Amino acid sequence: MSTVATTLTPESADWSQPSKGRTAMICLIIAESAIFSIFVVAYLYYIGKSASGPTPRQVLDLPILSSICLLSSSATITFAIRALISGDTGRFGFWWLATIVLGGYFLFETGREWHDLIYNKGLTIQTNLFGTTFYSLVGLHAFHVLVGLLALLIVMGFTFAGAVKREHAERCEVLALYWHFVDVVWIIVFTVVYIIGL
Domain span at residue 172? Predict the structure, then answer.
C-alpha cells in the first residue's frame, strides 16, 4: 500500500475557516434583502394605482433629519468597533451609545410620522393601496431598526457591566454588519417612498 504525501503550500497552511458569525450574518442579510426587494417592487408597482386619496404628495414630508441621524449611526458604530479593536472600551461605549441614540431618534420620528399620518391626515393601512404598501414597507424597515436597537442595547448593558472586552470585537462587528444593512436599506426605502413615490 502506497501513501501519497501531500504538501502544504504557504497559502493553504495559512487558510482558516471564515468566521461563523460573519458568515451567518451575511446569509441573513442576503435573505432579508430578498424580502425587502419584494416589498420595494410591490410599492413601485402600486404607485399611483390607488382609487382614492390621500396620495403620497398630499401627506408625506421628507424625513431629512431622522434620515441623517440613521445614516450617521453607521459612522458612529464604525468608530465604536475601531475603539474596541484598539482596546479602548470607554470610547467604544461612547460611540456605541451614540449609535443607540441616533437609531432611537430615527425610530421615534418614524412613530411621530405615523401618528400624524393616521390621526391628522387619515392615512391607515386600510385607506388605499398607498397606505397598505407604505406601512408595509416602512414598517418592515422600522421593525428591523427596532430589532437592531434591542441588540445594541443588550451589548450596551454588557458594556456598562464591564463585560465587553477587546476579544469581543468580532462579535460586535457582526452586529455592526446588520446595522449597516439597515442603513443601506433605508437609503433605498427613502428613495422609493419619498422621492420616486412623490
Answer: 20-50+64-196
